[in-house]
Specification:
226 residues, alpha/beta, Uracil-DNA Glycosylase, subunit E, 11% strand
Length: 226
């Protein structure tokens, strides 16, 4: 199995009927601001440097963001905030991600999500999460150099713990809680590093600021030995 083959498998996935119906309906009906664009309307594969030592782990694609552009965290304000931070901290060659052919390249970072289809109200069900999570596990297996997983929000933190447990890692009970800046080191596993999700709810209210996310990403660099 290669990353390219896994990407093709992810793109072709139709395992969750509710998510398939929603992502395709959004792609047909579109938002007025993007009425002239062709939406991707399929599951979103990971993106970045195959030799990454840092994995950026999110929740799910946005209906009019990645579901439109075809690239994870691209086409919405959450992605704008994240890629600007990745550029400031040396992970990206440019501060914006517009579409799949805009010249963006990541260095030592790979970005992916726990759920690959845009969910209604941005809330996948537990069953949808469990159906999709093996893709992220297989992705992590193929990204053999990952030393740090930056979990964007509590959903990603919990999903990362589930992936590690499925790989045979001894995860403590009760499971360690998410927090911004939280660090969790487990034997024979990448270190988990928590960061508030760069959603508008967090960035517009000041719960997550540019210096805060920069500090997490710089800490990830240090922990990964970059």
């Amino acid at each position: 199995m290669s990353l390219d083959r896994l990407e093709r498998e992810i793109i072709d996935c139709r395992r969750c009927p509710r998510l398939v119906e929603w992502r395709e309906r959004v792609a047909r009906e579109k938002r007025a601001a993007f009425a002239g664009e062709s939406y991707w309307g399929r599951p979103i594969p990971g993106f970045g440097d195959p030799r990454a030592r840092v994995l950026i782990f999110g929740l799910a694609p946005a209906a009019h963001g990645a579901n439109r552009t075809g690239r994870v965290f691209t086409g919405d304000r959450s992605g704008d905030f994240l890629f600007a931070a990745l550029h400031r901290t040396g992970f990206a060659n440019q501060p914006v991600s517009l579409h799949a052919h805009d010249g963006l390249a990541l260095r030592d970072a790979w970005i992916t999500a726990a759920v690959r289809c845009a969910p209604p109200a941005n809330k996948p069900t537990p069953a949808e999460r469990e159906t999709c999570l093996p893709y992220a596990r297989r992705e992590l297996d193929l990204l053999g150099d990952v030393r740090v997983i930056v979990c964007l929000g509590a959903f990603a933190w919990d999903a990362a713990l589930r992936i590690l447990a499925a790989r045979g890692v001894a995860v403590p009970r009760p499971r360690p809680r998410f927090g911004h800046g939280a660090e969790l080191e487990l034997a024979a596993a990448p270190l988990l590093l928590g960061c508030f999700h760069p959603s508008q709810q967090n960035t517009f209210t000041g719960r997550l600021t540019a210096p805060m996310i920069d500090a997490v990403l710089l800490r990830a660099r240090a922990l990964a030995g970059i």
